């Protein structure tokens, strides 16, 4: 799947996270990646100075590591989740 790095893609990812009961925050941080999960809580902090590509890649990599409760997602979100879980991303 060719993933486009657009604000719409970022918004879809944020909607998936919201459906999975994660809160997304954009803050400056002292972390190397573009995003991190705060101490096993359902808060994802994204470096606000990251480019849109970096934000998207960081969120996808984090989603791949969390235990996604797919029953919380609608069908479109499930398809979107499955499509990028099988995609290898590079910045």
Q: What is the topology, as strand order, of the major beta sheet?
A: 1-3-2
Structural class: alpha+beta
Which outline best applies? globular
Measured between the Cα atoms of the first and last residue, the distance is: 15 Å
Number of strands: 3
Number of helices: 3
Give average pLDDT, whole number.
83
Q: What about the largest sheet?
A: 3 strands, mixed
Runs in which pLDDT lies below 50 for 5 or more consecutive residues are none
Tell me what you see in this structure.
The chain has 91 residues and is of the alpha+beta class. Helix content is 42%, strand content 14%. It is built from three helices and three strands. The protein has helices at 7-19, 52-65, 75-85; strands at residues 23-27, 35-37, 43-47. Strands 1-3-2 form a three-stranded mixed beta sheet, covered by helices on one side. β2 (35-37) and β3 form a beta hairpin. The longest helix is centred in the middle third of the chain and has 14 residues, at 52-65. The model has no long low-confidence stretch (mean pLDDT 83).
């Amino acid at each position: 799947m060719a993933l486009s790095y657009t604000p719409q893609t970022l918004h879809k990812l944020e909607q998936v996270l919201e459906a999975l009961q994660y809160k997304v925050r954009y803050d400056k941080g002292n972390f190397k990646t573009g995003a991190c999960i705060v101490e096993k809580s359902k808060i994802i902090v994204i470096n606000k100075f990251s480019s849109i590509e970096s934000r998207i890649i960081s969120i996808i990599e984090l989603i791949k590591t969390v235990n996604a409760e797919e029953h919380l997602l609608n069908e479109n979100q499930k398809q979107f989740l499955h499509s990028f879980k099988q995609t290898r991303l590079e910045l």
